[in-house]
User: What shape does this take?
Amino acid sequence: MLLVTLYEIVGYLISIIVMVVIVQFVLSLLLSFNVVNRHNEFVGAVWRAVNAILDPILNPVRRIMPDTGVLDLSPMVLIIGLTIIQIVLKNLMFATV
Assistant: This one.
């Protein structure tokens, strides 16, 4: 029963991180196409908050990956890695139950 609870907690945290990655992606597109402006207080606060949350997670991924220039693939690698971790934990949970 404890493993089921832990799996659900980790799954929930992974879902939150994936959602924040998606928010960062959409916001970066809006900023790059000048739909929103970083000088807006709300947009700037959201941008800083999202980057403060994700930079400690994405920086190790960026150090491992080869330089691709302007295209940053580290969020995609992070989402794939988190999904793999979630699958492994689910299989471990079902193996012990």
In short: The chain has a mean pLDDT of 92. The chain has one domain: 2-96. DSSP finds three helices and no strands in the chain.
